[in-house]
Amino acid sequence: MFRVDNSYMLDTVRNHPGVFSAVAVVDADSAALTATVGQLRSQGVRGFRITARNDKPWTEWEGMQRLWDAASGRRMAVCPLIDPAAFPWVAALCEKHPHTTVVIDHLGRIGATGAIQDADIRSLCGLARFPRVHVKVSAFYALGRKTAPYTDLVPMIRQIFETYGPRRLMWGSDSPYQVQPPHDYASSVDLVRQHLPFTSREDREWLLTKTAERVFFSS
Q1: 3-class DSSP state for residue 68?
Q2: Which of 11, 94, 124, 162 could crosslink 130 through cysteines, CB 3.0-4.6 Å?
Q3: DSSP 8-state code for residue 79
Q4: Which domain holds residue 56?
Q5: Residue 191 lies in a domain
Q6: Are 84 and 124 in contact (CB under 8 A)?
Q7: DSSP labels for 129-191?
Q8: How far apart are CA 217 and CA 86, in angstroms?
Q9: Residue 218 and residue 202: Cα distance in Å, rounded?
Q10: In 3D, which of 181, 211, 176, 206 has the Cα closest to residue 192?
Q11: What are the angstrom distances between the C-alpha of 112 and each of 108, 132, 195?
């Protein structure tokens, strides 16, 4: 585990200027959190991966509150890797930090158990009332039937698309997991390119590239 050691990723960003933008992991409880966030931004970081913690919800976690505030002040995103049970935590912090950009990873892992619950979809769509919340349409290998061409996910994606619109959705590679056999990137990209008939060509451009560019590569 690299934990909060982002050095390999930062070296990659530095060695390939203009090519990569980074999402880092930080210790939200660190006394130096604000300084660390500022330093990482200067090194090409544009977001922070955050996860649930067993001992307390985010609304009771002072460090998480500070991280959302620090990210907002530097035009950086928080990227929750969570299950649907944590959607209310996102809502609570969006209420307190309305200017913080949020990118929810992997469709909020709806369907990770194999069952796609309508209540979970409604809960994720409910977060669209916060205009800075985005959703990453990704990790198809881990959701629903978990089998290419992943078309069982299309009804869920359609509901989320109709709620958020293409400019708040982005595809993600989820490297390296998406390419572990029998899965591959071609099938993941093809779901967006070939199996979402409710999208236009421009919509798919936003899903595959433009939304991520706007969120993670803008200065």
Answers
A1: helix
A2: 94
A3: E
A4: 7-216
A5: yes
A6: yes
A7: GSTTEEEEEE-GGGSTT--TT-GGGHHHHHHHHHHH-GGGEEEE--TTGGGSTT--HHHHHHH
A8: 27
A9: 20
A10: 206
A11: 9, 25, 21
- Of 62, 57, 56, 38, the closest CA to residue 48 belongs to 38
Residue type for 210, please?
K
CATH number at residue 65: 3.20.20.140
**Total domains present in the chain:** 1
Q: Confirm whether 2 is domain-assigned.
A: no
pTM exceeds 0.90 for this model: yes
Asked if the structure places residue 63 within a domain, the reply is yes
Per-residue pLDDT reduced to its tens digit, 6-46: 999 999 999 999 899 999 999 999 999 999 999 999 999 99
- Tokens (6 digits) for 69: 């505030």
Residue 26 lies in a domain: yes
Read off the tokens for 76.
């950086």
